[in-house]
Automatic annotation (TrEMBL):
This is Histidine kinase. The lineage of its organism: Bacteria, Pseudomonadati, Pseudomonadota, Betaproteobacteria, Burkholderiales. GO terms for molecular function: protein kinase activity. SUPFAM superfamilies: ATPase domain of HSP90 chaperone/DNA topoisomerase II/histidine kinase, CheY-like, PYP-like sensor domain (PAS domain). It holds the Pfam family Response_reg.
Length: 499
């Protein structure tokens, strides 16, 4: 084994032989590490293998002979929580992939988009994020064990004399010598980082005056010139007159935990940026395909239609042409008409050309009209964007949210009417889609109790969050369903360029 190219044990859980071969070929071309894949076609076999053999990462397809959908990941993760999992999804399973990430998966990969560099990076990031999360969990466990074992740094403050006892471990945490600091309260306060001192004083005052819990994290400056994060908890004692006279507490060095939390936060931000980039690339690819379908293929079909029409005209004056030939030409002409209509419909479903050519408002009008024609549901439009010019990203985000919200109405609401509102108010852009359908109970996390609808809500939340938006839902059984998305106006508005 090459020390510069470590070996990784990869468990590929995929029942499709062709998909498995494609992924294994991509793994073979990875340069950063030597992938040693083992394939399992059944979830039960995968769980058994992961529990009994070394495994560094799992590539998990959600559609298997003995398990389907999000429950596939839940079952595997419940049985083997110690191994990082990358979920493999199809084009229609993106929201399921996002849900899997929320439940503990490290990432999801679209099967059709898998290529060597993306697969290599996703595996490395998944293993690293899992390691950081495991270290964070271990750090919290160490913290609890330290508290139980009385290994925290203890302090005991006499409020009457302002004298404080500091335990040896306290002094060790604070980097003091045995004869330091002076047994006075200000000695501890003087060591607190200037940016944190007022917050600590406020928490301390709230505890002594209002008996609020005292639990605060802050930085302390060490004699070496560095700083350290500590967590401090304490409990005061009050006399019969309600006056505090003593307070006892402890501090714990949580520098490693804070560092791990920061690393995990950065990792999540990188994942969200990657998700936003993938979304952007998908929109661009949809726009390109839609444009080619609409322009190139549409023009070619139109030219073919015109050619057939010309042949029909010429055959009318020729006695040689049989009725069978004329009928066949007529059938071909109708088939071309149907193909042109299909091409236009597919292109519009991918991305309406008018969204790029005419802007957001005409595209929403087309979407609403098509929705009403397809499903017979009336849509009242209360659209007043004023003189706002939307950015490309803003227009795409708003259009896709309206599209997803109307799709949810059609699939789940049993509604007869919808109110679509888009307006600018108070420096914000507000979009609301409300129906008069059956409504539904909201479960923890803001999702719907109808699982398939919750996937649509996850997509809406992700799109909104990517540009700083927020989502609120108002619903009750039998009282309709309303989703409101609010964006800062600057996030969706085209900024004027001064000459």
């Amino acid at each position: 084994m090459n020390a510069l190219r470590p070996a990784l044990q990869v468990l590929l859980v995929e029942d499709s032989a062709s998909d498995a071969l494609f992924i294994e070929e991509a793994l073979a071309d990875v340069q950063d590490f030597e992938a040693c894949p083992t394939r399992a076609e059944w979830l039960s076999h995968a769980i058994e293998h992961a529990q009994t053999a070394p495994c560094d990462v799992v590539l998990l397809d959600l559609g298997l002979p003995d398990s389907q959908g999000p429950d596939t990941f839940r079952r595997f993760h419940r049985q083997v929580p110690s191994v990082p999992v990358l979920v493999l999804t199809g084009l229609d399973d993106i929201l399921i992939g996002l849900q899997a990430i929320q439940e503990g998966a490290q990432d999801y990969l679209l099967k059709r988009d898998i290529e060597v560099s993306l697969l290599s990076r996703a595996i490395r990031y998944a293993i690293e994020r899992h390691r950081v999360a495991a270290e964070l969990a271990a750090s919290k466990e160490r913290f609890q064990l330290a508290v139980n074992g009385a290994s925290a740094g203890l302090w005991d403050w006499d409020l009457g004399t302002d004298l404080v006892y500091f335990s040896p471990h306290f002094k060790e945490i604070m980097d003091y010598q045995d004869d330091e600091p002076a047994d006075e309260n200000h000695a501890l306060l003087d060591a607190i980082h200037p940016d944190d001192i007022e917050r600590v004083r406020a928490a301390l005052a709230a505890h002594l005056e209002q008996r609020s819990p005292y639990d605060v994290e802050y930085r302390v400056n060490l004699r070496s010139g560095t700083s350290r994060w500590v967590e401090s908890r304490g409990q005061a004692l009050w006399n019969g007159a309600g006056q505090p006279y003593r307070m006892v507490g402890w501090i714990m060095d949580v520098t490693d935990r804070k560092r791990d939390e920061e690393a995990l936060r950065i990792s999540r931000e990188e994942l969200r940026r990657l998700s936003a980039h993938i979304q952007h690339v998908r929109e661009e690819e949809k726009a390109r395909i839609a444009r080619e379908l609409h322009d190139d293929l549409g023009q070619q079909l139109t030219a073919l239609k015109m050619g057939l029409a010309e042949i029909e005209i010429r055959l009318k004056g020729q006695a040689v042409a049989t009725q069978t030939v004329r009928d066949r030409l007529s059938d071909m002409s109708r088939l071309i008409d149907m193909t042109v209509a299909s091409v236009r419909r597919i292109a519009a479903d991918l991305r309406p050309v008018m969204l790029d050519d005419l802007g957001l408002m005409p595209a929403i009008d087309w979407l609403v009209n098509d929705f009403t024609d397809r499903y017979g549901i009336d849509v009242e439009r209360r659209i007043d964007p004023g003189d706002t010019t939307f950015t490309g990203v803003g227009a795409t985000t708003l259009f896709r949210i309206v599209q997803e919200a109307l799709t949810n109405v059609a699939r789940h609401a049993n509604a007869t009417a919808v109110v679509l509102t888009l307006c600018i108010e108070g420096g914000c852009c507000m979009l609301r889609v409300a129906d008069n359908g059956r409504g539904g109970r909201i479960v923890d996390g803001g999702g719907s109790d109808r699982q398939d609808q919750s996937f649509g809500l996850v997509g809406i939340r992700e799109r909104a969050h990517m540009i700083g938006g927020s989502v609120t839902i108002d619903t009750a059984d039998g009282k309709g369903f309303s989703i409101t998305v609010t964006f800062p106006l600057h996030a969706v508005q085209q900024q004027e360029v001064l000459p």
